Amino acid sequence: MILFPAIDLKDGVCVRLEQGDMKRATVFNRDAAAQALGFEAEGFEYLHLVDLDGAFAGRPVNAHAIERILESVPLPVQLGGGIRDMATIAAWLEKGVDRVIIGTAAVRDPELVKQAAHDWPDRIAVGLDARDGRVAVQGWAETSDLSVLEIARRFEDAGVAAIIHTDISRDGLLKGLNLDATIALADAVTIPVIASGGLASLDDIRRLLEPRAKKLAGAIAGRALYDGQLNAGEALRLIRAARAQ
Amino acid sequence: MTVAIIDYGSGNLHSAAKAFERAARESGASQPITVTSDPGVVRNADRVVLPGVGAFADCRRGLDQVPGMVAALSEAVRRRGRPFLGICVGMQLMAERGREYAVTDGLGWIAGEVCRIAPEDPGLKIPHMGWNTLDVHRPHPLLDGIPLGPQGLHAYFVHSYHLRAEDPADLLAVSDYGGPITALVGRDNYAGTQFHPEKSQKLGLALIANFLKWKP
To answer: What is the pLDDT of residues A30-57, one digit of tens each?
Structure first.
């Protein structure tokens, strides 16, 4: 179980949104690389980066901030937001991003995802962000007709490293993770699934470590870390203790 | 006093350079870290680092395509005895040969071959990607002061092949991934890590700091 701290980039700085609404953004750190270093110092193992502007634009926008993070922190990094063609995928993977997360293209261009997963084994993750079980794309500006399970199943056996499942209605609002839906997804595919959206406190961590959540590969923590609702040290201690068993 | 990180078109050069700079700063070492594709700089460097990601054969070709680089490496490391650190495929290149796709000659500095890892547990996926602990077989200055073993610090791996060292004296540390996989090799003044020290947080920075002080 890996707990990924999230750094979401808007206008080059580190923010948290509510339900993905760019108009409800709070800036938490003007220096994203410093935020990343802070997470490293707390003992996190793997960073989750989102280029929010990129997600809306359909191409990388916060490249400079992302590169600064990649250079500064001796940790693996997964990155999503506006990554929609092979050249962009290859460029980031060659720059040292460990895994790229593809969202919109997973819905609109599944062949791209399959080809990328084939060319870059275990370096491609799929981001499925849902409103009431329907996948939303383009920075969550559009909701498709497709269900999370339908889209996830397209990628079974394609070599996708992970699916990051976000409940949009809970994202940024500390409502607790939607474990039921995430576990249902994990049960339906062999691809490792990571929970995201709403992680609020140590209780979410405890629930993630329960037997029924054993299938989950990890969870993303965002607002709770920035607001201080989740103590990183305590969370990581719980996780390490569970691993040692 | 320079540390040359070889740029031959492979490896996370920027991340590696930054990690070396940071380790140097934090440990009070003052050696400038230079990323270079100039064999002259490599030949005259005080310490040499060879990164590498991707397929063994592609990396070997890339290295051969920088005129004079392999000769500069041999001069600096084998003749002048400068400390050398290979990272990931940069470590694998020290082998006699690699068996990824085609059979390709390595530098031949460490007896053995690079072959595909084959975990006993079929549930374990290839590539071996993630954090793992190290079991130390032989003490080495690169590992000084680093808490290791099953309760120790973790290193970050991403690879499908590993160097099977023929001489047990060269096999310094392994990790368990459905059986032992080579994590660290070394002989004389040259050593290499399968894992990425520049992504391995405390363990990685400590190892890099040890490399910067290493007097073989």
So the answer is: 999 999 999 999 999 999 999 999 999 9
Question: Using a CB-CB distance cutoff of 8 angstroms, which residues of chain A are in contact with residue B19?
Answer: 74
Catalytic residue list contains B88:
yes
pLDDT in tens, A110-167: 999 999 999 988 899 999 999 888 998 888 888 888 899 999 999 998 999 999 999 9
Task: Please answer whether residues B194 and B171 qualify as being in contact, where contact means their C-beta atoms are separated by less than 8 angstroms.
Answer: no
The strand pair at B171-176 and B180-187 is best described as antiparallel
Q: Which of A96, A122, A161 sits opposite B15 (nearest CB)?
A: A96
Number of domains in chain B: 1
Q: Going by CATH, does the domain composed of A2-244 fall within 1.10.10.10?
A: no
Tokens representing A205 are 């961590």
**How many Å apart are CA B113 and CA A182, to the nearest integer?**
43
Can you give the CATH number for the domain in which B178 is found?
3.40.50.880
For the complex shown, is ipTM > 0.85?
no
The residue range of the domain holding B141 is: 3-213
Quick check: A72 contacting B, CB < 8 Å?
yes
